[in-house]
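ok, trying the design again with the full structure, not the truncated one.
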């Protein structure tokens, strides 16, 4: 007689178990995917592979495509992609989606934007789902208690053909953040601090569950920022157990969840938490109480400092990271021992799937209101999606930015990775709300400093990296 042993499970284990079609071996399962998101960049070869084998898309309705990376953001009314290769990617995506009956947010759709901003605002992401995409920042959806992660192009083809994925299970990490984030700081500062502490590989091989009072107090949009950037610590996924805050958000975005469906959904979501005795392979605890605004000084997101900190000397860092620190400082042209505050910048970019949602724009606008972009600084806001842009315009935020001398652009990935026309020149130093400060990320030779939207706004109006908490009150 066999006895079923009921053990405590982590939230991550519950999500994997509920989507496992078949266990393949010790490490791998065949995982069912509730939603597969696609973009123009990582899907063409997958469709080509599918067509070569004469296969159909298994469940077209559980796939959605968004043109994100290569779309132009200039304010002209019709968007025309001038680069031939990029235009071809967009046309291919449109053709493939039409052929297979896959919904598409196309280049000139009013709701167009960055895939990770578009999907949740249209109610596509719900607690308990598995969401995958050929894009690393799919971890964003953990904010709603959905397991999201990026996949490679060959996997995209497999998912299209079967709506399943051969999935190597990850280890479990818990990051608890006690306390409350102080005024003037955001979840961007929190995640930059965490990445600085555990390193760019610190969560490699793990799915991270965030918990603790500081996390509970975060809005859903702030949680998106946190989970989005967990991948910059190497995480294979990020999760926050659904609570009242996230459930309210989802119900607002999902008009179809009513009546019995709503009761059933609420009942199912109640189980989405890590059991008391669940075992995590690794745990970290932080306190949010004394967190300062954080800004990167190097070419990896873990090369980061609190704004009052001093740029490290390569001699003072551990031997294994010394060379990369030296290289980074050579690239960013900064002096060890100096503070980041006061470093002149030439460009400000407020955008990306990390920080281009409405709350991000509100927080930047609050700093900008009544001030002017500093002389010699070019500053732009690229909203995360058409919906964010429309909302911001309804609130008059576009006018706040335009009056101050910012450019107000159309949505897209834009200068987050410079795959469209928004590219920085060699040597230009940019205060950026994005997630990656790699060499050349925003243009060859361009230097990126990652920070929160409020800090980027402070940089725009002062012309230098500035502690937003120390700005004199503006005369609005
Ligand atoms: C283009 C895409 C594959 C890439 C990713 O996977 O993250 C991009 O979105 C990025 O942010 O670097
Ligand atoms: S905004 Fe940046 S990080 Fe996000 S999907 Fe686009 S390129 Fe990647």
């Amino acid at each position: 007689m066999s006895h079923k042993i009921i053990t405590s499970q982590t939230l991550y284990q519950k999500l994997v178990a509920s989507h496992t079609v078949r266990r393949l071996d010790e490490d791998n399962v065949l995982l069912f995917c509730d939603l597969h998101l696609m973009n123009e960049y990582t899907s063409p070869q997958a469709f080509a592979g599918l067509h070569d084998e004469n296969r159909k898309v298994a469940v077209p309705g559980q796939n959605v495509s968004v043109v994100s990376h290569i779309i132009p953001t200039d304010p002209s009314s019709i968007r025309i992609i001038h680069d031939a290769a990029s235009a071809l990617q967009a046309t291919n995506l449109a053709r493939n989606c039409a052929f297979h009956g896959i919904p598409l947010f196309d280049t000139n759709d009013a709701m167009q934007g960055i895939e990770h901003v578009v999907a949740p605002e249209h109610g596509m992401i719900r607690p308990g789902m598995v969401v995958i995409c050929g894009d690393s920042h799919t971890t964003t959806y953990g904010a709603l208690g959905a397991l999201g992660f990026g996949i490679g192009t060959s996997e995209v083809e497999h998912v299209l053909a079967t709506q399943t994925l051969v999935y190597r299970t990850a280890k479990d990490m818990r990051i608890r953040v006690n306390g409350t984030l102080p005024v003037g700081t955001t979840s961007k500062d929190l995640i930059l601090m965490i990445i600085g502490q555990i390193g760019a590989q610190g969560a490699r091989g793990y799915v991270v569950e965030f918990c603790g009072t500081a996390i509970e107090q975060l809005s859903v949009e702030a949680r998106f920022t946190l989970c989005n950037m967990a991948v910059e610590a190497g995480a294979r996924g990020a999760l926050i157990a659904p609570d009242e805050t996230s459930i309210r958000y989802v119900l607002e975005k999902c008009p179809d969840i009513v009546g019995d469906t709503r009761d059933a959904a609420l009942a199912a979501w109640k189980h989405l938490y890590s059991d008391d005795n669940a075992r995590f392979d690794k745990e970290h605890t932080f306190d949010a109480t004394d967190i300062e605004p954080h800004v990167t000084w190097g070419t990896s997101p873990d090369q980061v400092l609190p704004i009052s900190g001093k740029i490290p000397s390569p001699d003072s860092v551990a031997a294994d990271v010394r060379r990369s620190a030296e290289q980074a400082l050579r690239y960013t042209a900064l002096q060890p021992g100096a503070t980041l505050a006061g470093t002149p910048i030439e460009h400000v970019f407020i955008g990306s799937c990390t920080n281009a949602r409405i709350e991000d724009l509100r927080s930047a606008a609050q700093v900008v209101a009544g001030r002017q972009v500093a002389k010699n600084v070019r500053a732009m806001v690229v909203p995360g999606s058409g919906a964010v842009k429309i909302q911001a315009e309804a609130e008059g935020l576009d006018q706040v930015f335009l009056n101050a001398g910012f450019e107000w652009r159309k949505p897209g990935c834009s200068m987050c990775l410079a795959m469209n026309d928004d590219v920085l020149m060699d040597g230009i130093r940019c205060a950026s709300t994005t997630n990656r400060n790699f060499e050349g990320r925003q243009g060859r030779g361009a230097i990126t400093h990652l920070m929160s939207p409020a800090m980027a706004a402070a940089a725009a109006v002062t012309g230098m990296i500035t502690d937003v908490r120390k700005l004199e009150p503006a005369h609005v």
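Keeping the full-length input from now on. The CA atoms of residues 199 and 352 lie 22 Å apart.
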